[in-house]
Design brief:
With about 80 residues, this protein is an alpha+beta fold. The protein has one domain. It has 1 helix and 5 strands; from the N terminus they run βββαββ. Strands 1, 2, 3, 4 and 5 form a 5-stranded antiparallel β-sheet that branches. The longest helix is centred in the middle third of the chain and has 19 residues, at about 25-45. The mean pLDDT is about 90.
C-alpha cells in the first residue's frame, strides 16, 4: 500500500508530516486531506478577515500528489 504524507499550513506555520499514512490510493488520500481541513478549520480560521488552510499531499518519492485548500474570506461591502 502506498504511503502519503499530509503537510499542513495556515499561512503562518507549516506542519510537515514526517511519518505519513498508508492509504489504498490517491482517492483515499484525498478523503483524508479533506478530513484534516475540517479538523483544523475551527481553531485555525479565527482571523477577523479570514484565512487559508492548505494540506499538501506528498507521495513516497516526496513529490506533491495533491493540494487541498480551504479559504475563508470576509469582504465588507459598505
Amino acid at each position: 500500500m502506498p504511503r502519503f504524507y499530509f503537510d499542513t499550513s495556515d499561512g503562518e506555520t507549516m506542519g510537515p508530516d514526517e511519518t505519513g499514512r498508508e492509504m489504498p490510493d490517491l482517492a483515499a488520500a484525498r478523503t483524508q486531506a479533506l478530513e484534516i481541513l475540517r479538523e483544523l478549520a475551527p481553531d485555525r480560521l479565527k482571523a477577523v478577515d479570514g484565512g487559508t488552510l492548505v494540506v499538501r499531499v506528498r507521495d513516497d518519492a516526496g513529490g506533491t500528489a495533491m493540494l487541498a485548500s480551504l479559504v475563508l474570506t470576509v469582504q465588507d461591502m459598505r
